[in-house]
Q: What sequence folds into this?
């Protein structure tokens, strides 16, 4: 049985078609791991998706190159918020991080802001989450968070409240993760667990592959 016509007309991707979705991750690879399939699908279906990476620690040139390749695979625009050299988020005072994210939000006027959730185990991911929470005062965009991200997944509490079918983009997500060779292949990390996670998330809601989102705020019209 097909979906009713009204569902097509009000689909998640139709909601953001011709509008900007701003995804903010602490580091290169975080967005690909947490929400890569979703971003790729929104971009494919007409959204202008900006992947904003707050900082690049370590080998700046290599990780920037990997992030560019990954964003291209997902059909998204890459921005490095702390550009120009290796930096760590903890080097910023919290008001400076808020200002950095505010600048991106003011410039892009997104229809949705997608970022790390509050239960992340990486403390710098939580700092980005908190700064994005503050950015909600700048406009009435949707605010969503994604599953905690880490190179070697472990159990962390997260309750998805919305699920997005990423079956059409699971391969793009996997390729985008693999583009971060310095973080995965060269450290001997098996990427298949990320496909498994998307499969498990999908099976919970009757889809082959899905990503889960927690909805902080959604403006309905
Ligand atoms: Zn990270």
A:
């Amino acid at each position: 049985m097909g979906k009713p016509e009204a569902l097509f007309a009000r689909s998640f991707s139709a909601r953001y078609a011709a509008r900007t979705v701003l995804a903010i991750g602490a580091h290169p690879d975080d967005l690909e791991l947490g929400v890569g399939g979703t971003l790729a699908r929104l971009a494919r279906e007409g959204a202008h998706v900006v992947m904003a990476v707050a900082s690049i620690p370590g080998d700046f040139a290599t990780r920037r190159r990997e992030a560019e390749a990954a964003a291209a695979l997902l059909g998204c625009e890459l921005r490095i918020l702390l550009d120009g050299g290796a930096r760590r988020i903890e080097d910023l005072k919290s008001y400076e991080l808020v200002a950095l994210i505010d600048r991106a939000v003011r410039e892009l006027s997104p229809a949705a802001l997608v970022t790390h959730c509050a239960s992340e185990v990486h403390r710098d991911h939580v700092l980005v989450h908190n700064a994005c929470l503050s950015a909600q005062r700048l406009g009435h965009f949707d605010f969503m968070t994604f599953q905690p991200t880490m190179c070697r997944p472990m159990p962390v509490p997260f309750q998805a409240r919305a699920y997005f079918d990423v079956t059409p983009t699971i391969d793009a997500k996997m390729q985008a993760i693999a583009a971060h060779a310095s973080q995965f292949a060269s450290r001997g990390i098996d990427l298949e667990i990320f496909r498994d996670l998307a499969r498990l998330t999908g099976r919970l809601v009757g889809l082959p592959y899905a990503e889960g989102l927690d909805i902080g705020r959604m403006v309905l019209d």
Remarks:
- The chain is about 40% helix and 15% strand.
- The helical segments are 5-9, 12-16, 30-44, 60-74, 94-108, 123-135, 170-178, 192-203.
- The chain has one domain: 17-217.
- Residues 26-27, 30, 122, 125 surround zinc ion (CB under 6 Å).
